[in-house]
Amino acid sequence: MAKKIVAICGSERKNSYNQYLINFIKQKTIASFQLHSLPIDKLPFLTNSPTTHQLIEINYVKQNITEADGLIIATPEINGGAPANIKNLIDWCSLESGLLTNKPIMLLGASLGLTGTILAQRSLRYVLTYPSINAKLTHQTECFVANAKDKFSSTGELIDAPTQKIVIDLINEFKALIK
Predict the structure, then answer these.
(1) What is the structure's pLDDT at 179?
(2) Cα 142 to Cα 59: distance, rounded to the nearest angstrom
(3) What local confidence, expressed as pLDDT, does residue 5 receive?
(4) Which entry of 4, 5, 11, 126 is 20 to 30 Å from 37 by CA?
(5) How sure is the predictor about 54, in pLDDT bands with cuts at 50, 70 and 90?
(6) DSSP element (H, E) containing 79
(7) How far is residue 144's CA from residue 167's CA, in Å, rounded to a whole number?
(8) 118 falls in which pLDDT band (50, 70, 90)?
(9) Is residue 131 helix, strand or coil?
(10) Would you say 19 and 11 are in contact if contact means Cβ atoms under 8 Å apart?
(11) 102-113: average pLDDT
């Protein structure tokens, strides 16, 4: 039976390399994952008094994460860290005790720079393994796609063989983490 996986892309850009990574994962896991991309662009920033409309969006996101066997987070890097929308999602989830506890999470990311998303993923690892959250993260295989424009075709296909191998190794680690 296919595992329900929620994929989150930290970039809202139309031709996002991080979305392209998610698309590649979806192609490679069609038999084992039921992968659902969860947009987080309408998720309000954390507040003590969300409106009724905002609560609907918050509950929708939390419900999808609750029902998922695992999460994939594809993050860009902005000024040496993860984008605010991903941190905001984690903050909302942390308000519901245990929502992310032991939840298998695959981290990966792509950027145009030379170091990929090393710092963004490091900041997310710190937050996601914080004792009150305590998610289960992939850690043996790390995927920091640097110089992303050279690794993807003009149509968004991952064409770099070494990067493909890293992503497939990461998928295999994630599958083992879910079991």
Answers:
(1) 86
(2) 31
(3) 98
(4) 126
(5) very high
(6) none
(7) 10
(8) very high
(9) coil
(10) yes
(11) 97
Residue keyed to tokens 């050279």? 150
Q: Residues for the chain: how many in total?
A: 179
Residue with structure tokens 């903050």?
Answer: 91
Tell me how crowded residue 66 is: count the other CB atoms within 10 A of its CB. Answer: 14
User: Per-residue pLDDT tens for 77-99?
Assistant: 999 999 999 999 999 999 998 99
In this structure, the number of other CB atoms found within 10 A of the CB of residue 132 comes to 9
Q: pTM of this prediction? A: 0.96
HSE-up of 167 (CA within 13 Å, CB side)?
Answer: 26
| Cβ-contact 54, 45 below 8 angstroms | no
Q: Are 35 and 102 in contact (CB under 8 A)?
A: no
3-state secondary structure of 72: strand
The 3-state DSSP class for residue 24 equals: helix
* pLDDT score of 1: 86
CA angle 126, 90, 71 (to 5 degrees): 90
Burial class (CB in 10 A: 0-12, 13-18, 19+), 28: middle
Alpha helices (runs of H) in 16-105, residue ranges in sequence order: 17-28, 52-67, 84-94
